[in-house]
């Protein structure tokens, strides 16, 4: 659509010509919708903002001055600004500082921290009862996340041997922890 034709339609819209407004909408809405969709990233939001854009165009048509620039960039600027305003409106308003005291502290309390540390020391003592290579293999498997295959290659033993090492080591750890 030629810029002159859009400018003429905007001029008629400024005089409150509803038919010209309908033609302007039909000819320019795909482009403006694409601008909104690109900025907002959501079809529903883009459609809502597009409606608001055409309300603004209806209200501001008399402000358009053809000598200051082409019509399509003027329409695109309205679409862009309205889309950005919609994004800003989405952001949640910061909570009042007075409501912050209602937030629960998810960190463990001193008693729970002491229990966890005590359990950790017990596990370390039990790990010391294992052979050094078995203890290292258990740590590698259950702390570092190495697979049985990786451990078997690292220790140069068959895969089933590594599985047996780990299973027997875990049994010994459980027996130690139960004492």
Automatic annotation (TrEMBL):
The keyword Transcription applies. Pfam families: Sigma70_r2, Sigma70_r4_2. Residues 24-91 form the RNA polymerase sigma-70 region domain. The keyword Transcription applies. GO terms for biological process: DNA-templated transcription initiation. One of its GO terms (molecular function) is DNA binding. Residues 121-173 form the RNA polymerase sigma factor 70 region 4 type domain. Gene3D superfamilies: 1.10.1740.10, Winged helix-like DNA-binding domain superfamily/Winged helix DNA-binding domain (1.10.10.10). It comes from the Bacteria. PANTHER family: RNA POLYMERASE ECF-TYPE SIGMA FACTO, RNA POLYMERASE SIGMA FACTOR SIGZ. Belongs to the sigma-70 factor family. ECF subfamily. This is RNA polymerase sigma-70 factor (ECF subfamily). It comes from Rhizobium paranaense.
């Amino acid at each position: 659509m030629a810029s002159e034709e859009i400018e003429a339609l905007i001029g008629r819209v400024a005089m409150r010509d509803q038919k010209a407004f309908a033609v302007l909408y039909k000819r320019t809405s795909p482009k403006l919708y694409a601008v909104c969709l690109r900025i907002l990233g959501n079809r529903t939001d883009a459609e809502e903002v597009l409606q608001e854009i055409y309300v603004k165009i209806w209200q501001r048509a008399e402000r358009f001055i053809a000598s200051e620039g082409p019509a399509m960039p003027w329409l695109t600027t309205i679409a862009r600004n309205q889309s950005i305003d919609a994004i800003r409106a989405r952001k949640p308003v910061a909570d009042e500082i007075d409501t912050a005291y209602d937030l629960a502290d998810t960190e463990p309390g001193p008693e729970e921290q002491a229990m966890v540390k005590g359990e950790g020391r017990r596990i370390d003592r039990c790990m010391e009862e294992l052979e050094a290579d078995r203890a290292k293999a258990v740590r590698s498997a259950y702390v570092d996340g190495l697979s049985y295959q990786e451990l078997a290659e690292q220790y140069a033993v068959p895969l089933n041997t590594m599985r047996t090492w780990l299973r027997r080591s875990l049994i010994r750890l459980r027996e130690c922890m139960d004492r």
